[in-house]
Amino acid sequence: MRRVEHVMGFPVSLRIDDPDVAGESVDAVFAWLRAVDARFSPFRADSEVSRYDRGELSADALSADLVEVLALCEHYRVATGGAFDVRLPGRGLDPCAVVKGWSVQRAAELLTRAGLSRFCLNAGGDVVVSGGPWRVGVRHPDLADRLCAVLDLTDAAVATSARYERGDHILDGRTGRPVTGVDSLTVVAPTLTEADAVATAAFALGAEGVEWAAARGGCEVYAVLPGGRVLRSAGFPTAAPAAA
Question: Is residue 242 scored above 90 in pLDDT?
Answer without folding.
Answer: no
